[in-house]
Amino acid sequence: MLTWSLYWTVRECLVTRKPIAVFDSGLGGLSVVRELRRSLSCEDIVYFGDTARVPYGIKSRRTVAKFALEDARFLLQFEPKLIVAACNTASALAMDELEEKLPVPVVGVVKPGARAAVQLADGAPVAVIGTEATISSGAYTAAIRTLSAQQEVIGQACPLFVPLVEEGRDSDDPIVKLTVETYLSSLREAGIHVIVLGCTHYPLLKEAIAEYLGPLVRIVESGRETAHAVREVLQRGENLCAEERTGTLQCHVSDNPTRFRRIGSRFLDEEIEHVELVEPEQYIASAASDRKEK
Amino acid sequence: MLTWSLYWTVRECLVTRKPIAVFDSGLGGLSVVRELRRSLSCEDIVYFGDTARVPYGIKSRRTVAKFALEDARFLLQFEPKLIVAACNTASALAMDELEEKLPVPVVGVVKPGARAAVQLADGAPVAVIGTEATISSGAYTAAIRTLSAQQEVIGQACPLFVPLVEEGRDSDDPIVKLTVETYLSSLREAGIHVIVLGCTHYPLLKEAIAEYLGPLVRIVESGRETAHAVREVLQRGENLCAEERTGTLQCHVSDNPTRFRRIGSRFLDEEIEHVELVEPEQYIASAASDRKEK
């Protein structure tokens, strides 16, 4: 009996107490962290935001894959039990490479968002909105069609949404309302039932989007679905933390911690206590070797 | 007589034929190149756009200075006779460091813009619009006050203008019109006589800005003023090309040459023939050593 209890205590310390690592091109991934902290409150989280090279959404597949791998490898030093690619662009463009090259399970935001969309679609077209790179990659469409081969999917890039959110504009803002109308009018006309918010910034404009599309259109937040997917993966591996405690959050950025704290708290929905500035050598060098770490 | 003529021929080959190097965080600097090609048509130009790390306008002084120095040092391999920091953010945040560490004359866009603004102000307040980083640096205000100590200057960050332009929206676009009105209404009320377009993207929205502010407000394009400043520096050093030929343009980018060509041609006002993709080692490594090259 004692041995068994000792086994579980040691296991608790060795595996389940390891943190979940989350990376993003910048601060948007904090909206995914918010969902993780809500549904997996006792987990410790280590976050890396690549604010020196943000945004990824206008960059090439090759560059996004390189940056994403560097971000994830930086986080390996914290010995995470799982890595979340909270950035939609990175999930859309670099998931295969991340899964192949990282020694721990990786959860992206595209597949969970796609799964929820298919469950809600009910035969009507699904819309996916995201950055230029996410939409033109066709990753959401591919993920949705894997689950439901005939599903109609309409992609729409909404490049102004990120700067609108980062500037602090919310759903009541006239520029936001006009921009939402401009991007989404063709989706409304197409009679969509479901829209996937395929960018971590977009939940902050959810009200304006919901108001414009009307109450019959269901909104899928990829971040929220990702938190469910993380729980499933951890549960399957018996790595879920089950203690009665509030997990810690450690944030690291490659530039401008002050801006990260100021704007990021709106994404996280709580104050960000402390942010560590990471030097280029710490994340660029860590990816210099191209060896497979698996 | 022959010796004298030989001297000038050799000099022509050795100095005046050297290219002008221009760098920018991305493709915006092509609006400065356009002005250079108009007023200094026989000069060869080598351009580097750091499209892998664009934009600089939301980043810290430290990071912008590091990136700007890497960009400029990459261009040294072409043995330029002069380097233009076409990026307003880099000119605002890193000019001292560039001037100190580079072995050739450097012309930024802030001082030329400031000089033109002072000449036109006529006692009324001057407005400067630019990125978050340019405006909060206060660099334009400082440059203007050096020339005219009592000059009133009003800075206004316009973070949506860059993504609006990059998305291909022009002055007739309803979102552009509403955004212009939102950012500039307080400047109009303040009775400004002059507005400085302190970002290389903004000339593409000039019509909307002019229409909103009315015909009495003079618009200063920092890029155009910079071309005049480059001419003066080259003339002073007797390095101006005086041949009857059309100079070449060589473009290099750190990411996404296709997007650069597609969007960049609107800034340049001509097709971009060929763009070279530069590997990270070529520009990041070149700045690794911190030695003074002067």
Report what the structure shows.
The structure is a homodimer of 294-residue chains. Chain A is α/β, with parallel strands linked by helices and 294 residues long. Chain A has 2 domains: 160 residues, Rossmann fold (3-Layer(aba) Sandwich), CATH 3.40.50; 112 residues, Rossmann fold (3-Layer(aba) Sandwich), CATH 3.40.50.1860. Chain A is built from 13 helices and 10 strands. Chain A has a 6-stranded parallel β-sheet, sandwiched between helices. Chain A has a 4-stranded parallel β-sheet with strand order 6-5-7-8, sandwiched between helices. The radius of gyration of chain A is 19 Å and the shape is globular. The C terminus of chain A is likely disordered. Chains A and B meet through helix 3, helix 8 and helix 9 of A and helix 3, helix 8 and helix 9 of B.
Short description:
The structure is a homodimer of 294-residue chains. The first copy, chain A, is of the alpha/beta class.
Give the low-confidence spans of chain A: 287-294
The CATH class of the largest domain in chain A? Alpha Beta
Question: Total number of β-strand segments of chain A?
Answer: 10
Q: Look at the helices and sheets of chain A and give the structural class.
A: alpha/beta
* Helix fraction of chain A by DSSP (H/I, runs of at least 4): 40-55%
Question: Could you tell me the strand content of chain A as a percent range?
Answer: 5-15%
| Main sheet overview of chain A | 6 strands, parallel
The Rg value of chain A, from CA coordinates, equals 19 Å
The greatest interface here is:
A-B, 28 and 28 residues
What oligomerization state is this entry in? homodimer
Number of helices of chain A: 13
Q: How many domains of chain A, as an integer?
A: 2
